Amino acid sequence: MTETPPGVNKWPNSRDTMSRRSMMAATAAMPLTVQLSAGAAAGNDAIAGLIERAREKNAAFMRGDMDRWFQLVRIAQDFTLMQPFGGPASRGFDASPKRLAELSQYFREGETELEVLQTYASDVLVVLVMIERQRAEVGGLAAQDWSLRVTEIYRKDSTDWQLVHRHADPLVRRITLQQAATLARGWPEEK
Q1: Which residues pair with 59 in a beta bridge?
Q2: 3-state secondary structure 83-149
Q3: What integer pLDDT is reported at residue 39 of this predicted model?
Q4: Which DSSP string do the residues of 33-100 spell out, in sequence order?
Q5: Does residue 14 sit in helix, strand or coil?
Q6: Mind listing the pLDDT tens digit for each residue in 53-95?
Q7: What confidence tier does 174 reach under pLDDT thresholds 50, 70, 90?
Q8: Are 155 and 146 in contact (CB under 8 A)?
Q9: What is the pTM of this model?
Q10: Which residue in 44, 47, 73, 50 sits closest to 60, CA to CA?
């Protein structure tokens, strides 16, 4: 049995044997720094590239530069989005010129910073856990803080990494139990 690397918790199940499925799931869930494989350096390069791409695409999006944003993002056919405004997850992405023009009018004058909290990787999946710290004009509202907690999942296709899932919410600051309950229940629109 190999020794557990420093800073890594041993699995709670101390049995010496693991099913192949459990082993694969565990490997996919481990941070890249824990995975010791011949492809580790390539994985680090992939993560660094995806983080830089996330920085650039987020900055373009919040400026309303949807042409640049669309050059940087590779959206998978089976993409899901959990928007910061709530509601059901959307599937797919409408990249028509009309939709991109609408988005470019909705987001304006944004400034952004990306704080990467954690990354996870396997040969075919990369997960980025981030806070997008940003200030922008959104939907005609005056410029304000639009920071989001974000999780993005990328899947390797034959030539590139495709964005398959994005979950973003505005709960960067802690809220009370009562505020969370109000959000969970929903509330009538302001009149």
Answers
A1: none
A2: CCCCCCCEECCCCCHHHHHHHHHHEEEEEEEEEEEEEEECCCEEEEEEEEEEEEEECCCCCEECCEE
A3: 52
A4: TT--STTHHHHHHHHHHHHHHHHHHHHHHHHT-HHHHHHH--EEEEEEEE-TT-SSPEES----HHHH
A5: coil
A6: 999 999 999 999 999 999 999 999 999 999 999 999 999 999 9
A7: very high
A8: no
A9: 0.75
A10: 73
From residue 143, alpha-carbon distances to 106, 115, 149 in Å are 12, 21, 19
97: its two tokens: 């010129």
Query: Mind listing the pLDDT tens digit for each residue in 14-64?
Result: 333 344 444 444 444 444 444 434 455 566 888 999 999 999 999 999 999
33 by Cβ neighbours in 10 Å (0-12 / 13-18 / 19+) ranks as middle
Residue labelled with tokens 């530069």: 65
Q: Which residues contact residue 141 at a Cβ distance below 8 angstroms, ignoring those fewer than 6 apart? A: none
